[in-house]
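re the bet — no i am not wrong, look at it urself. input seq straight from the record:
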Amino acid sequence: MRPNAILFLMLPILALSAFTYQTAKADLVTGKIAKGPFRAQLDTCLVIASDSTIVKRFVTNKKREYQVILAPGTYRVGFRDKNGQEWIAMLRAELTTVKDISIAFKKGKLIK
């Protein structure tokens, strides 16, 4: 077989592998909620996209650890405490697993 014919046969495989890599939709983000007013296992965190859509909700374990699967992007993460005060933080998700992201909340608005 001629070298050009081999290359011609391999092009669809190379194109498919590149397409598969680029279409990764989401991955795991793990970490811990930093100290503050957050109550582990009680308060529900909301993950909010840039268009103010709530994309996920999660509750931590008793050690304040969380794990959530998110599409790549920047999100607001927040919760409302028992007195109704809203707390927010920013979270960045990547195409690959992101580990040990500490979330430190500050007072703010969950939905803009």
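see?? The first helix runs from residue 3 to 22. told u. also The first strand starts at residue 27 and ends at 33. so pay up
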